[in-house]
Write a structure and sequence with these properties.
Helices cover 26% and strands 27% of the residues. The chain contains eight helices and 20 strands. Strands 11, 12, 13, 14, 15, 16, 17, 18 and 19 form a nine-stranded mixed beta sheet that branches. The chain has a seven-stranded antiparallel beta sheet with strand order 5-4-10-9-7-8-20. It has a two-stranded antiparallel sheet with strand order 1-6. The protein is globular and about 55 Å long. It binds pyridoxal-5'-phosphate (PLP).
């Protein structure tokens, strides 16, 4: 059995002692323990387990979504669920519950964990099968919903901007696997992330096979130049990001033109500004690529406007969670 990897929200780690035992070592009362949804049941984190024969583990065979909760609202939940069901359909996997039930289960899991702000991970695995690859021997996919928190980059990078490298690892051609499938096999992105971290950077630009900018390891890319904003088209090999779409809408409302354009590293080196978007990343400036400054090496004014507008948007654009009073 594999225990779901996640963190239990704890009371404040303030060094308090109870009967000489640090508070953080005492078991949490049941009502405060993280609850994880597995196949229709809300389980304590310790009991949230799936089989080692699940093809999600054996082959990375499955799909997932990462979704943010802001101020008690789940941001763009419908769009995330649509993408989840499309990813599943693309890999011939029938999610065992209808989309409306998934929406309710997601809202209920967030409410059960009393999370006003956080991050949801929806995971659908192919399910239990034999050790062989054949997915048709897995009768029922497993549904896992984790409501927790995430922090992708150090907080100061949201002020100072990220340093990027160009990864040698390329995005796979769509002929191998469509980048639109958010599959449980993220090794391509993991290898690129390793390169970025080993180069002392927080994030890496991933090119497609032709050398055009596709995206980052878990984010979409935008640049600003001469007052206009550009982002690679989805056909360059990136995921059709939900934050990307929200930012394109924001740019329109702010009066900036945003054009989809095939880009090379040249377009990033010569841009005035660069920023990344993603559910986990949110909107974050990038100020260096391969140790060269982008613009003047500081987050720019268009980026600042987008960040501010995005923070406003998430306050009201979302499906409200009903919490127990
Ligand atoms: C590879 C990749 N690109 C881009 C994104 C950003 O997409 P979204 O804004 O929908 O989170 C993600 C995260 O989901 C991702 O995994």
């Amino acid at each position: 059995m594999v225990e779901a990897a996640c963190f239990t929200p704890r009371p404040v780690h303030d060094g308090r002692l109870i009967s000489g035992i640090p508070l953080k070592w005492l078991p949490l009362p049941r009502s405060l323990r993280m609850k994880i949804h597995i196949n229709g049941q809300l389980l304590d984190k310790e009991d949230a387990k799936i089989s080692v024969f699940d093809h999600g583990l054996l082959y990375g065979d499955g799909v997932f979504e990462g979704i943010r909760i802001y101020h008690g609202r789940i941001f763009r939940l419908t769009a995330h669920l649509k993408r989840l069901y499309e990813s599943a359909r693309s890999i011939c996997m029938e999610i065992p519950i209808p989309i409306e039930e998934m929406e309710k289960a997601t809202l209920d899991t967030v409410a059960a964990n009393n999370l006003q702000d956080g991050y949801i991970r929806l995971v659908i695995t192919r399910g239990v099968g034999s050790l062989g690859l054949n997915p048709f021997q897995c009768p029922r996919p497993s549904v896992i919903i984790i409501a927790s928190t995430i922090s992708l980059y150090p907080a100061e990078r949201y002020e100072k901007g990220l340093n990027l490298i160009t990864c040698a690892t390329r995005r796979p051609t769509p002929a191998a696997l469509s980048p639109q499938v958010k599959s449980l096999n993220y090794l391509n992105n993991v290898m690129a992330k390793i390169e970025a971290i080993q180069a002392g950077c927080e994030e890496g630009i991933m090119l497609n096979e032709q050398g055009y900018v596709a995206e980052c390891t878990g984010d979409n890319v935008f640049v600003a130049k001469n007052g206009k904003v550009y982002t690679p088209p989805i056909s360059a090999g990136g995921l059709d990001g939900i934050t990307r779409q929200a930012v394109i809408e924001i740019l329109g409302q702010l009066g900036f033109s945003c054009e989809e354009k095939m880009m090379t590293r040249h377009d990033l080196f010569t841009a005035d500004e660069c920023f990344l978007t993603g559910t986990a990343a949110e909107v974050i400036p990038a100020v260096q690529l391969d140790r060269r400054l982008i613009g003047d090496g500081k987050p720019g004014p268009i980026t600042a406007q987008v960040v501010a507008a995005f923070r406003e948007l998430v306050k009201h654009d979302g499906t409200p969670v009903t919490y127990a009073s």
